[in-house]
Amino acid sequence: MTRIIIDTDPGQDDAVTILLALASPEIELLGITTVAGNVSLGHTTENALKTLELAGRTEIPVHPGADRPLRRAPIDASHVHGRTGFEGVELPAPRLRAREEPADSFLVRTLMENPPGSITLCCIGPLTNIALALQREPRIAERIERIVTMIGAWSELGNITPCAEFNAAADPDAAALVFASGVPIVVVPLDVTHQLHTSRARMERLRALPGGIGAVVADWFAFEKRFEAEKFGTDGGPLHDPNTVLWLLRPDLYGGRKVNVMFETESALTAGMSVIDWWGVTDRPRNALVLRDVDADGVYAELTERLGRLERP
Ligand code: BDR
Ligand code: CA
């Protein structure tokens, strides 16, 4: 059993990641922490609550976190995800409420109360909450089993600026702090996600699933992926965040290399750029396993089969 906390800014693809975790008995989801990113913290928190209600898993706590990056002006990706982050399918207003304890406090408390190495953090938004938790209690660095995060890019460079991926660009200082913490990290960069197009055929298979969740996911992706499908002229857009949970479930679907990863925090032109030493040209510590290769059909088969296990209550 892998015990995880998902730190997230839903966003359609974040919500699919939560659903995938809930569909997987190998994973115990201890809680969800929310952060401003794709849209404002109010929307990301509400969307996390809606996602739990959609799956009928309202016992899982949602803890709101940072409403802005550590030290710079907020950016968002509402041009991709829509004003609420859930355009494509607007779910009913949640009856479930978020917990009062803020994300950084929940992260610290949960990690300090549990045995070292027993909790994985799945981070699929800007890393602000994790940075705040590490600042609040640096000893959590030795207790986190690993961080699996969708962030950065090696050869694909950027999707929100010419050379920065969104989660890194939204809070470069948090990314730099987390990657310097010594916690073992697995990185899903754009190099992987850009090989995973949400093609028409794949979306039709999702839509045909019994239980009603596949149709929601297909409609969400139809909206979210229109932006990058148009940008790249491809049949569908990239599949980002679900790869974090999929890697935990099926690491055999991915290949990568343990290398040094750092983030640019000074230059205004390249803020948030991931500097990935793929060829080992420095002697900096190998602080992350960076994924690059992926079995695209295997990923969609696994995702589709698992989402088919869920039913709308
Ligand atoms: C990342 O940015 C967000 O828009 C997605 O949810 C994903 O986490 C991709 O760059
Ligand atoms: Ca995200």
TrEMBL record:
Coiled-coil spans in chain: none
Residues of the Inosine/uridine-preferring nucleoside hydrolase domain: 4-300
Keyword vocabulary terms for this entry: Glycosidase, Hydrolase
GO molecular function: hydrolase activity
Name of the protein in question: Nucleoside hydrolase
